[in-house]
Amino acid sequence: MSTSVPDSGVAPAARPSSTPALLRLDGVHAEVAGQPVLRGITLDVAEGEFVAVLGHNGAGKSTLLRTVLGLVPVRRGQVRFSGDDITRSPTPQIVRKGVSLVPQQRGYFENLSVADNLAFGARTDGRIGLDEIYELFPILRERRGQLVGTMSGGQRQMVAISIALMSSPRLLMLDEPSVGLQPNLVARVMEVATQVNTEFGITVILVEQNIEKVLQVARRVVVINQGLVQLDEPVAEVTADHIWQLL
Ligand SMILES: Nc1ncnc2c1ncn2[C@@H]1O[C@H](COP(=O)(O)OP(=O)(O)OP(=O)(O)O)[C@@H](O)[C@H]1O
After folding, report:
1. Where are the domains of the chain?
2. What mean pLDDT is predicted for residues 214-218?
3. H helices, E strands: number in the chain
4. pTM of the model
5. Level-2 CATH architecture, domain 8-98+171-179+200-247
6. Ligand 1 pocket: which of 28, 35, 37 to mutate (most atoms <8 Å of CB)?
7. Can you tell me the distance from the alpha carbon of 92 to that of 100, in angstroms, rounded to the nearest whole number?
8. What would the DSSP string read from start to end of 177-201?
9. Is 176 left (phi over 0), alpha (psi -120 to 50) or beta?
10. Name one GO molecular function term (predicted).
11. Can you tell me the mean pLDDT for 56-70?
12. pLDDT by residue (tens digit) across 70-93?
């Protein structure tokens, strides 16, 4: 099991992989509000993987996802997607390449109907369209005319995930999608993340606080600490206790 000491300031080398990386971060540094948050993140994610990212509050998990999408500028290091250098690419271009993010809060328009929200994320040439979304979330078909602002927290989260899926991404990044949801909805969100990965073949990066749930659905766990990768292991090689000790 490989762990690195975060205060050594040295990021562990990228995990060697036989499959070329879909996403590759190489020594990525980024700042938020003038403060360093990512301090040299090195991470490879292969196509088809389901990677969970854990870390204590403020560790830099959301910043990591936002940096991949170009919403936080990279100060140092490089981000590659499908072999292309996207380090300084504008967000719309990164989205067009196939990266999608379900943000931690309000990844939808409250004053628009479900159908209009879905149209916002749609891509005409994509593999995922309304039929696929309504099959995944039948409740959204029933409520397609309803304003999203009048729906429950769980239903809104389904809309947020659906908007992200409507761009037919190759990489779907979910930022704590189960926060504030009741247990049966948390289970449903995890199930959807798994379906997206296995049925649509979409690579998934899931930021999540619920370690037990993560170990049930992800196949690889990455722990971020002080802006560095502290642990990067297949789920089969870690225990919840071990991860708890790191957080
Ligand atoms: N808008 C902001 N203004 C100032 N500081 C911010 C802002 N957003 C994030 N930060 C700081 O950046 C650091 C990393 O935040 P980030 O949201 O990436 O952490 P996180 O690991 O996702 O945390 P959480 O689990 O609480 O969501 C934190 O110290 C946070 O206080």
Report:
1. 8-98+171-179+200-247
2. 93
3. 9, 10
4. 0.89
5. 3-Layer(aba) Sandwich (3.40)
6. 37
7. 10
8. TTTT--HHHHHHHHHHHHHHHHTS-
9. left
10. ATP binding
11. 95
12. 999 999 999 999 999 999 999 999
